[in-house]
Protein backbone atom coordinates (compact mmCIF):
# COMPACT_ATOMS: atom_id res chain seq x y z
CA UNK A 1 0.00 0.00 0.00
CA UNK A 2 1.41 3.40 -0.94
CA UNK A 3 1.93 6.25 1.52
CA UNK A 4 -1.11 8.27 0.45
CA UNK A 5 -3.44 5.28 0.70
CA UNK A 6 -1.99 4.46 4.11
CA UNK A 7 -2.62 8.01 5.33
CA UNK A 8 -6.25 7.74 4.28
CA UNK A 9 -6.68 4.37 5.97
CA UNK A 10 -4.96 5.71 9.09
CA UNK A 11 -7.23 8.76 9.17
CA UNK A 12 -10.30 6.52 8.94
CA UNK A 13 -9.22 3.95 11.50
CA UNK A 14 -6.79 5.41 14.05
CA UNK A 15 -9.31 6.83 16.55
CA UNK A 16 -11.65 3.83 16.38
CA UNK A 17 -8.81 1.35 16.66
CA UNK A 18 -7.30 3.20 19.63
CA UNK A 19 -10.62 3.29 21.48
CA UNK A 20 -11.15 -0.42 20.88
CA UNK A 21 -7.68 -1.35 22.10
CA UNK A 22 -7.58 1.00 25.11
CA UNK A 23 -11.09 0.16 26.30
CA UNK A 24 -10.66 -3.59 25.97
CA UNK A 25 -7.20 -3.60 27.56
CA UNK A 26 -8.14 -1.00 30.16
CA UNK A 27 -4.81 0.79 29.83
CA UNK A 28 -3.95 3.83 27.73
CA UNK A 29 -0.20 3.20 27.76
CA UNK A 30 -0.43 -0.47 26.81
CA UNK A 31 -3.17 0.36 24.31
CA UNK A 32 -1.03 2.98 22.54
CA UNK A 33 1.81 0.45 22.22
CA UNK A 34 -0.59 -2.04 20.66
CA UNK A 35 -1.99 0.55 18.23
CA UNK A 36 1.52 1.51 17.12
CA UNK A 37 2.58 -2.12 16.69
CA UNK A 38 -0.60 -2.86 14.75
CA UNK A 39 0.14 -0.20 12.13
CA UNK A 40 3.82 -1.11 11.95
CA UNK A 41 2.96 -4.76 11.30
CA UNK A 42 0.41 -3.76 8.69
CA UNK A 43 3.01 -1.58 6.95
CA UNK A 44 5.57 -4.37 6.96
CA UNK A 45 3.32 -6.88 5.19
CA UNK A 46 3.04 -7.05 1.44
CA UNK A 47 -0.61 -8.14 1.54
CA UNK A 48 -2.02 -5.15 3.46
CA UNK A 49 -5.33 -4.48 1.66
CA UNK A 50 -5.75 -1.08 0.01
CA UNK A 51 -9.54 -1.28 0.08
CA UNK A 52 -10.72 0.68 3.19
CA UNK A 53 -13.20 -1.88 4.61
CA UNK A 54 -10.78 -4.77 4.17
CA UNK A 55 -7.95 -2.69 5.60
CA UNK A 56 -10.08 -1.84 8.64
CA UNK A 57 -10.93 -5.51 9.25
CA UNK A 58 -7.27 -6.43 8.74
CA UNK A 59 -6.11 -3.84 11.30
CA UNK A 60 -8.70 -4.91 13.86
CA UNK A 61 -7.63 -8.52 13.40
CA UNK A 62 -3.95 -7.69 14.05
CA UNK A 63 -4.91 -5.51 17.02
CA UNK A 64 -7.14 -8.23 18.48
CA UNK A 65 -4.29 -10.74 18.39
CA UNK A 66 -1.89 -8.24 19.93
CA UNK A 67 -4.39 -7.40 22.68
CA UNK A 68 -4.52 -11.08 23.65
CA UNK A 69 -0.71 -11.30 23.63
CA UNK A 70 -0.31 -8.20 25.81
CA UNK A 71 -3.07 -9.33 28.16
CA UNK A 72 -1.39 -12.71 28.66
CA UNK A 73 2.01 -11.15 29.31
CA UNK A 74 1.02 -8.14 31.41
CA UNK A 75 -2.33 -8.85 33.01
CA UNK A 76 -0.84 -8.63 36.49
CA UNK A 77 0.86 -5.32 35.87
CA UNK A 78 -1.79 -3.58 33.76
CA UNK A 79 -3.71 -0.92 35.69
CA UNK A 80 -7.43 -1.67 35.72
CA UNK A 81 -8.47 1.71 34.26
CA UNK A 82 -6.20 4.66 33.48
CA UNK A 83 -8.66 7.13 32.03
CA UNK A 84 -11.32 9.23 33.72
CA UNK A 85 -14.61 7.60 34.60
CA UNK A 86 -17.28 7.27 31.92
CA UNK A 87 -20.86 7.94 32.97
CA UNK A 88 -24.15 7.52 31.21
CA UNK A 89 -25.69 10.78 30.02
CA UNK A 90 -29.20 11.78 31.12
CA UNK A 91 -29.09 9.79 34.32
CA UNK A 92 -28.42 10.46 37.96
CA UNK A 93 -26.36 7.31 38.26
CA UNK A 94 -22.65 7.74 38.82
CA UNK A 95 -21.81 4.37 37.35
CA UNK A 96 -18.33 4.25 35.84
CA UNK A 97 -18.84 2.26 32.67
CA UNK A 98 -15.12 1.87 32.00
CA UNK A 99 -14.67 0.05 35.32
CA UNK A 100 -17.83 -1.94 34.80
CA UNK A 101 -16.63 -3.01 31.36
CA UNK A 102 -13.39 -4.25 32.90
CA UNK A 103 -15.32 -6.72 35.06
CA UNK A 104 -15.96 -8.78 31.91
CA UNK A 105 -13.35 -11.17 30.54
CA UNK A 106 -11.05 -9.90 27.80
CA UNK A 107 -12.83 -11.93 25.13
CA UNK A 108 -16.23 -10.72 26.31
CA UNK A 109 -15.02 -7.13 26.07
CA UNK A 110 -13.71 -7.73 22.56
CA UNK A 111 -16.94 -9.41 21.46
CA UNK A 112 -19.20 -6.69 22.85
CA UNK A 113 -17.05 -3.87 21.48
CA UNK A 114 -16.85 -5.31 17.98
CA UNK A 115 -20.59 -6.05 17.91
CA UNK A 116 -21.99 -2.91 19.50
CA UNK A 117 -19.45 -0.22 18.69
CA UNK A 118 -17.96 -1.42 15.42
CA UNK A 119 -21.24 -2.96 14.28
CA UNK A 120 -19.57 -6.13 13.01
CA UNK A 121 -21.68 -9.18 12.19
CA UNK A 122 -20.89 -12.64 13.57
CA UNK A 123 -18.77 -13.61 10.56
CA UNK A 124 -16.78 -10.38 10.80
CA UNK A 125 -16.13 -10.84 14.52
CA UNK A 126 -15.20 -14.47 13.93
CA UNK A 127 -12.60 -13.40 11.36
CA UNK A 128 -11.12 -10.79 13.69
CA UNK A 129 -10.96 -12.99 16.78
CA UNK A 130 -10.12 -16.30 15.09
CA UNK A 131 -13.39 -17.96 16.11
CA UNK A 132 -16.21 -19.78 14.31
CA UNK A 133 -19.30 -17.66 13.53
CA UNK A 134 -21.54 -20.15 15.37
CA UNK A 135 -19.33 -19.84 18.47
CA UNK A 136 -19.46 -16.04 18.25
CA UNK A 137 -23.26 -16.09 18.37
CA UNK A 138 -23.27 -18.11 21.62
CA UNK A 139 -20.35 -16.29 23.22
CA UNK A 140 -21.73 -12.87 22.36
CA UNK A 141 -25.07 -13.80 23.87
CA UNK A 142 -23.34 -14.86 27.12
CA UNK A 143 -21.17 -11.75 27.15
CA UNK A 144 -24.19 -9.52 26.70
CA UNK A 145 -26.00 -11.29 29.52
CA UNK A 146 -22.99 -10.80 31.83
CA UNK A 147 -22.76 -7.12 30.90
CA UNK A 148 -26.47 -6.67 31.51
CA UNK A 149 -26.12 -8.22 34.97
CA UNK A 150 -23.14 -5.96 35.70
CA UNK A 151 -25.11 -2.91 34.59
CA UNK A 152 -28.07 -3.96 36.70
CA UNK A 153 -25.75 -4.55 39.65
CA UNK A 154 -24.57 -0.98 39.23
CA UNK A 155 -28.15 0.25 39.51
CA UNK A 156 -28.79 0.75 35.83
CA UNK A 157 -32.16 -0.67 34.81
CA UNK B 1 -33.05 -4.60 30.46
CA UNK B 2 -33.08 -4.34 26.68
CA UNK B 3 -30.47 -4.60 23.97
CA UNK B 4 -30.83 -0.83 23.58
CA UNK B 5 -29.55 -0.31 27.12
CA UNK B 6 -26.37 -2.26 26.39
CA UNK B 7 -26.04 -0.30 23.16
CA UNK B 8 -26.46 3.00 25.04
CA UNK B 9 -23.83 2.00 27.58
CA UNK B 10 -21.41 1.00 24.82
CA UNK B 11 -22.09 4.20 22.87
CA UNK B 12 -21.29 6.25 25.97
CA UNK B 13 -18.09 4.26 26.46
CA UNK B 14 -17.09 4.59 22.81
CA UNK B 15 -17.72 8.35 22.72
CA UNK B 16 -15.91 9.11 25.97
CA UNK B 17 -12.68 11.05 25.52
CA UNK B 18 -9.38 9.29 26.06
CA UNK B 19 -6.19 11.04 27.14
CA UNK B 20 -3.56 11.35 24.40
CA UNK B 21 -3.72 10.72 20.66
CA UNK B 22 -2.94 7.85 18.31
CA UNK B 23 0.45 8.07 16.57
CA UNK B 24 0.30 10.06 13.31
CA UNK B 25 0.59 8.39 9.91
CA UNK B 26 3.87 10.23 9.22
CA UNK B 27 5.46 8.96 12.44
CA UNK B 28 4.29 5.42 11.71
CA UNK B 29 5.64 5.38 8.15
CA UNK B 30 8.99 6.74 9.39
CA UNK B 31 9.13 4.08 12.11
CA UNK B 32 8.20 1.34 9.65
CA UNK B 33 10.96 2.52 7.33
CA UNK B 34 13.48 2.59 10.18
CA UNK B 35 12.42 -0.89 11.32
CA UNK B 36 12.84 -2.25 7.78
CA UNK B 37 16.36 -0.79 7.57
CA UNK B 38 17.31 -2.17 10.98
CA UNK B 39 16.02 -5.63 10.07
CA UNK B 40 17.96 -5.53 6.79
CA UNK B 41 21.12 -4.48 8.66
CA UNK B 42 20.62 -7.28 11.21
CA UNK B 43 20.29 -9.84 8.43
CA UNK B 44 23.67 -8.74 7.04
CA UNK B 45 24.78 -8.61 3.41
CA UNK B 46 23.09 -10.84 0.80
CA UNK B 47 24.22 -14.46 0.45
CA UNK B 48 26.12 -13.79 -2.77
CA UNK B 49 28.11 -10.98 -1.17
CA UNK B 50 28.93 -13.07 1.93
CA UNK B 51 30.02 -16.04 -0.15
CA UNK B 52 32.21 -14.17 -2.63
CA UNK B 53 35.64 -14.78 -0.98
CA UNK B 54 34.94 -18.50 -0.47
CA UNK B 55 33.55 -18.90 -4.00
CA UNK B 56 36.54 -17.08 -5.48
CA UNK B 57 38.96 -19.36 -3.60
CA UNK B 58 37.22 -22.51 -4.85
CA UNK B 59 37.01 -21.20 -8.43
CA UNK B 60 40.71 -20.27 -8.42
CA UNK B 61 41.65 -23.71 -7.06
CA UNK B 62 39.64 -25.51 -9.73
CA UNK B 63 40.94 -23.21 -12.47
CA UNK B 64 44.48 -24.02 -11.33
CA UNK B 65 43.78 -27.76 -11.70
CA UNK B 66 42.35 -27.23 -15.19
CA UNK B 67 45.31 -25.10 -16.28
CA UNK B 68 47.70 -27.76 -14.94
CA UNK B 69 45.90 -30.39 -16.99
CA UNK B 70 46.01 -28.23 -20.14
CA UNK B 71 49.70 -27.37 -19.77
CA UNK B 72 50.86 -30.85 -18.74
CA UNK B 73 52.23 -32.51 -21.88
CA UNK B 74 52.37 -36.04 -20.54
CA UNK B 75 48.95 -36.82 -18.96
CA UNK B 76 47.98 -40.05 -17.32
CA UNK B 77 44.32 -41.23 -17.69
CA UNK B 78 43.78 -40.61 -13.96
CA UNK B 79 45.01 -37.04 -14.23
CA UNK B 80 42.89 -36.45 -17.32
CA UNK B 81 39.77 -37.66 -15.44
CA UNK B 82 40.59 -35.26 -12.58
CA UNK B 83 40.85 -32.45 -15.14
CA UNK B 84 37.43 -33.24 -16.63
CA UNK B 85 35.87 -33.47 -13.15
CA UNK B 86 37.38 -30.11 -12.20
CA UNK B 87 36.08 -28.62 -15.43
CA UNK B 88 32.56 -29.95 -14.72
CA UNK B 89 32.56 -28.51 -11.17
CA UNK B 90 33.84 -25.21 -12.54
CA UNK B 91 31.00 -25.07 -15.08
CA UNK B 92 28.45 -25.89 -12.35
CA UNK B 93 29.76 -23.11 -10.11
CA UNK B 94 29.59 -20.57 -12.93
CA UNK B 95 26.03 -21.66 -13.78
CA UNK B 96 24.95 -21.45 -10.09
CA UNK B 97 26.55 -18.02 -9.70
CA UNK B 98 24.80 -16.84 -12.87
CA UNK B 99 21.42 -18.03 -11.58
CA UNK B 100 21.98 -16.32 -8.20
CA UNK B 101 22.92 -13.03 -9.85
CA UNK B 102 19.85 -13.02 -12.12
CA UNK B 103 17.51 -14.03 -9.26
CA UNK B 104 18.80 -11.24 -7.01
CA UNK B 105 18.17 -8.69 -9.75
List the helices and strands and how they pair.
The complex is a heterodimer of chains A (157) and B (105).
Chain A: H1 3-25, H2 28-44, H3 52-74, H4 97-102, H5 106-117, H6 122-129, H7 133-153
Helix pairs in contact in A: 1-2, 1-3, 1-5, 2-3, 3-6, 5-7, 6-7
Chain B: H1 3-15, H2 25-43, H3 47-71, H4 77-104
Explain the overall architecture.
The complex is a heterodimer of chains A (157) and B (105). Chain A is mainly α and 157 residues long. In chain A, 70% of the residues lie in helices and 0% in strands. Chain A contains seven helices and no strands. The radius of gyration of chain A is 16 Å and the shape is globular. Chain B is mostly helical. Chain B is 81% helix and 0% strand. Chain B is rod-shaped, with a radius of gyration of 32 Å. Chain B starts with a helix and ends with a helix. The model of chain B has no long low-confidence stretch (mean pLDDT 79). The interface between A and B is medium-sized, with 42 and 27 residues.
